[in-house]
Amino acid sequence: MGEEPYYVTTPIYYVNDVPHIGHAYTTLACDALARFMRLDGRRVMFLTGTDEHGQKVEKAADDLGIGAQELADRNSANFRDLAVTMGYTNDDFIRTTEPRHIDAVQHLWRILIEREEIYLGTYAGWYSVRDEAFFSESELIKGEDGKLLAPTGTGAEVEWVEEPSYFFRLSAWQDRLLEFYDAHPDFIAPDTRRNEVVSFVSGGLQDLSVSRTSFQWGVPVPDNPDHVMYVWLDALTNYLTAVGYPDTNSEAFQTYWPADLHMVGKDILRFHAVYWPAFLLAAGIEPPKRVFAHGWWTNEGEKISKSLGNVIDPLALVEEYGLDQVRYFLLREVPFGNDGDFSRAAMVQRVNGDLANGIGNLAQRTLTLIQRNCDAQVPDPADFTDDDTNLRLDCGPRLLVAMRQEMNQQRFHIALQELMAAVSAADAYITANEPWALKKTDPARMATVLYTLAEAIRTVVILAQPIIPGAAARLLDQLAVPDDARTFAQIKEESALAPGTALPKPEGVFPRLVDNADA
Ligand code: ME8
Description:
The protein is an alpha/beta fold and 519 residues long. Helix content is 48%, strand content 15%. Strand 1 (5-14), helix 1 and strand 2 form a beta-alpha-beta unit. The longest helix has 30 residues, at 344-373. The termini are far apart. Bound molecules: ligand ME8. Ligand ME8 binds at residues 11-14, 22-23, 25-26, 51, 235-236, 238, 264-265, 267-268, 296-297, 304. Ligand ME8 binds next to strand 1, helix 1, helix 7 and strand 13.
C-alpha cells in the first residue's frame, strides 16, 4: 500500500475510575484526527485502552472487596462502552493485563537489563499513589493541615516508601534528552509545554525507581518475581505492544513505529516527554514523533472531582445534547492546549450559533429552495461567474488545504473556525444572489446559484465529517452523495454533483437547543 501511515494514541486510562468528560475529550481529539487522516487518504492506526496495574488499582479493588482483575474487567468495559457512545473509530483497544502486553514489557525490561540501563538498589523516598509517581522532597507542597502533598495539583497525599527496587539510569540521559529535544523541535507541543519540559530536564535528573516490592498487582520482573514493574514503565509500553512489539520486523511495527502522535493531558506530560523517550533511546528504539499535552477541563468554573460530586458524565451529555453537538462543542469551544470550562450556557450558544444557525440553516435553506424550484433534482447550472467559482474554491480545495494544515498541528479550534468561515461565505453568497427572487426573472441564473451552493455544501460537509460524523452523513445523504464519494479526494471539480440527480426531501439535522437553566 502506498498510503502514508499515521499512528495516533490516547493515554490508557486507569480502571480505578469511571470515564468522565476528561477521558472522553482526549480520545475524541484523537478520533477526529484519525477520521481526518483516513478521509485524507492515510493508513491509520488509532489506539486507546486501559491501564490496569499498579497500587492505585489494587487499592481501589481492596476498598471494594473485589479482586484487582475483576475491577479491571468491570471498568475497562466502561471505557469500551464510552468508545461506542462517542462514535470513536479506534482500531484497537489495549489492556495492560493482556498476555501480548506482558510479553512486550518483559522483553523491553530484558533489553534494558542487558544494556545495563537498569540496576538493583533500594528506594527510599516519597510516592503519590494517586499520581503513581515518585517525588523528591523539594518538589512537595504542604497542605492546609501540614500534610505533604504531591505538586500535581490533585491534592494527593504522598507516602514514604522504603523498599528494594530496580532503578533506570535516568540521570545519565539528561544531555541526550536535551539534544533530542533540540534536534526535534516538534516533539513536544504546545511550545509552552516544551519549555516546561526542557527546563525540568535542564534542572538535572535522578535515577528512576522502576519496580516495587510492597504490593503485587503488576507485571512480574523477569527472573525476580518479588518485584513488579513500576506501572508507568508497564503502561507506556502499550504503545509498542499494539504495533506488534517485541516483533520489530512485523508489518505493523514496520508501518507504524515511531508513532506520529501521543495525545495526553498536561498532567502526564513528564512521563511521555521525559521518561518515555529515555526508556526508548536506552533500548535502541526510536522515540515517537510528537507528544501533545492538552489542557484541563473544569465544570462551571470548578475543578472536576469525585469528592466535589461534579463529574461530568459524557453519556448523559450525549443524551441531552446529541453526539455531534457534544463532539463539536468540545473541539471548537476551547483553543486546543488551553484549559477550558464546561458550561451549559456556552454549549447551547455554540451549538445553536454554529450548527443550527450555521451549517444546518445553510443546508436547509438551500435544499428547500432546490426542492421547491428545481423539481427536487440537483439543478443544471449555466455559466459560472467568478463569485461562483470563488465560493466553491473557498468551501472546497482551499478549505481542505487550510484545515489539513491546522489538523496537522492539532489546532482543532482553528480548523473549525476555517470551516465556519466557509459557511459564512456561503451565507453571504445567498444574501447577495437572492436565488428566491430569480425564479421569475432569470431561472437559469437561479439554477446556477443553487447548484453553486449545493456544491459548496457538499465539500464543506465532507470536511466536517471527522468532527460531526452523524449529521454530516445525513446531510450528504440529502445531497445524494454516494457512500464511496465522501473522501477528501472527492473535493474536486470532477467529483461535483451531477445535475438532474434526484434529491430526497430535506430534513433539518441540528434542532435548536434550549437552555434548561433558562426554561
Ligand atoms: O494518567 N480535563 O490515566 P488517567 C482534561 N493511566 N483531560 C482530562 C481530565 C480533565 N479534567 N481528566 C482526565 C493516567 N483527563 C495513566 C496514563 S498512558 C501510558 C497512562 C484525561 O485515567 C487526560 O488525557 O488518570 C489525562 O492525561 C488522562 O485523562 C489521565 O487519565
